[in-house]
C-alpha cells in the first residue's frame, strides 16, 4: 500500500507469499527468524519444479514470486523483526525477453471493424474500447479505470493512471475520438440508465463498470470475428489486450516516433523497457538505411 501498487499486484503478491508460508511450514519453520538462505533457495527450486506440491512456474512468474519474498524479508529486517535478510543473496531467475507479437496495420483495422457489429450500445462500447486501446497503447486496467472526467475532447487528450497510480496525459487520434463520442452519446446513456450512476466510461449491460475480464472477452470475440485467432506462421496466435499495446508502440516507432515519446505514451518508468519494441522494427530500419545512406548500395 505504501508503494501505491495496484490491487491486482497486491493480490498476486499475497498469493506468492501464501505459497511461501506453506512451503516454510512444511519444513517446520514457524518464525521468520528461523529462515535461512538455503530455505529461500530451496523455495525458488520448488517454484520451478513444483516440488512443494504447487504448480511449476515459468521463469517470469517465479521471478515475481521471489521478488515478493525478497521484499518481505527486506521489510522484516528493516523493521528490526529479524537480525538478517536470508534472501539478500538469492537472485530471481533471469527472464528472457521475448519480442512482442504485434499485429499488422491491416490486422488492427480488421479487428476494430469486427467490433462494430451494429449500432447497439454494447457494439458502440466495444468499438470505442478497442479504438482507445490501440490509439493510446493503454493497459487494459487503465482503460476500464477511465472515468468521464479523465476525457478532454477539446485538447484531444485523456488522462490515464498507470502502475502505482502514476498519472500521465496521452493524445488520442480522431478515429478513436469519433468512436468514443458515438458511444458516449448513443451507447453509454442507455447502459448507465440500468445502474446507479458510476463515473467510469466503459459500462457493462447492468450499468456497472466494465471488468478487466469482460474487456478481455470483448477483444477475444472481435478477434474471432476478424479471423485472427487461428494459427500463425509459428503455429500459434494469441490476441490479448497487450497485443494492441504492443501493436500501438510498434506502429508508432515504425512511423518515425522517438523512443522517448513512446516511453511517455506507454507510461514506462525506464526507456529500456520501451526499447524492446525497437527490435521489432528492424525491417523498417534496414529499409530506411538502404534508401538514405550514401554508400548503402553498390
UniProtKB/TrEMBL annotation:
Location(s), subcellular: Cytoplasm
Family annotation (PROSITE patterns): CB, TYR_RECOMBINASE
Pfam families (UniProt xref): Phage_int_SAM_1 (PF02899), Phage_integrase (PF00589)
Main location: cytoplasm
Core-binding (CB) domain mapped to chain residues: 1-77
Gene3D superfamilies: 1.10.150.130, Intergrase catalytic core
Tyr recombinase domain boundaries: 98-290
Cellular component GO terms held in the UniProt record: cytoplasm
Keywords: Cell cycle, Cell division, Chromosome partition, Cytoplasm, DNA integration, DNA recombination, DNA-binding
Keyword Nucleotide-binding among UniProt keywords: no
GO molecular function: DNA binding; tyrosine-based site-specific recombinase activity
Active-site feature positions: 139, 163, 242, 245, 268, 277 (o-(3'-phospho-dna)-tyrosine intermediate)
An individual GO BP term: chromosome segregation
This protein's record includes keyword Lyase: no
InterPro entries in alphabetical order: CB (IPR044068), DNA_brk_join_enz (IPR011010), Integrase-like_cat_sf (IPR013762), Integrase_catalytic (IPR002104), Integrase_recombinase_N (IPR010998), Integrase_SAM-like_N (IPR004107), Tyrosine_recombinase_XerC/XerD (IPR023009), Tyrosine_recombinase_XerCD (IPR050090)
Protein family per UniProt: Belongs to the 'phage' integrase family. XerC subfamily.
Role according to the record: Site-specific tyrosine recombinase, which acts by catalyzing the cutting and rejoining of the recombining DNA molecules. The XerC-XerD complex is essential to convert dimers of the bacterial chromosome into monomers to permit their segregation at cell division. It also contributes to the segregational stability of plasmids.
Quaternary structure and partners: Forms a cyclic heterotetrameric complex composed of two molecules of XerC and two molecules of XerD.
Protein's name according to its UniProt entry: Tyrosine recombinase XerC
Source species: Actinomyces succiniciruminis
Record lineage: Bacteria, Bacillati, Actinomycetota, Actinomycetes, Actinomycetales
